[in-house]
Design brief:
Layout (H helix, E strand, L loop, with lengths): L3 E6 L6 H12 L2 E4 H13 L4 H15 L3 H10 L5 E7 L2 H10 L2 E8 L2 H11 L8 H14 L1 H6 L3 E4 L4 H14 L5
Parallel strand pairs: 1-3, 1-4, 2-3, 4-5
């Protein structure tokens, strides 16, 4: 069995989850969200889930169990799946490298959006702990960068700039899937 996957990386609010949903609809594929795994672990331990606490728990677990800990947890959901998998939320080079070793064809996509656009999205999303000011977004971005997300972004295979409409994003994803020979 040959494993195939698309890994998504990008700063908070760039649109990774939206891209995951669009690809899932287009390819009828499995989506594994590393962020959902981190949120679930946080919820089980603290009975609350806000972005700050999830980031804190994820950072601690990566220190204690290895920087690719969430990749390992994610791969346990992927390893027996026979279709294409989308991994939402690569946060560092070690996670990227882990998937590149474990998945036969693994293509990494950086979803990029400007800080202003990301702030507007996060503000509207209103997930517990999301930034309420641009200053808070910058502080969160710096924490993500300290976790190593810049390395995953730098080593991605391509970039989708997601600063405009959902229609434009759909077109960019269609082009990407065609380039990867995954379009149906």
């Amino acid at each position: 069995m040959m494993l195939r996957g698309i890994g998504l990386t990008g700063m908070p609010g760039s649109g990774k989850s939206t891209v995951s949903k669009i690809i899932s609809r287009k390819l009828n594929c499995l989506v594994v969200s590393m962020g959902d795994i981190a949120r679930e672990i946080t919820r089980e331990k603290y009975e609350t889930v806000d972005a700050r606490k999830v980031l804190e728990v994820a950072a601690r677990l990566r220190r204690e169990k290895g920087r690719n800990y969430f990749a390992k947890l994610s791969f346990s959901k992927i390893k027996d799946y026979e279709g294409i998998t989308v991994v939402d939320g690569l946060r560092n080079i070690e996670e990227l490298d882990y998937f590149k070793k474990k998945i036969d064809e693994f293509y990494v996509v950086n979803i990029h959006a400007s800080p202003k656009v990301r702030f507007e999205r996060l503000y509207k999303r209103k997930r517990a702990g999301d930034p309420l000011t641009m200053k808070e977004l910058r502080e969160r971005d710096l924490k993500e960068l300290n976790l190593g997300i810049g390395g995953a972004i730098a080593l991605s295979d391509t970039v989708i700039v997601n600063n405009s409409s959902i229609n434009r994003l759909n077109k960019l994803i269609e082009d990407l899937l065609e380039e990867l020979n995954l379009a149906h």
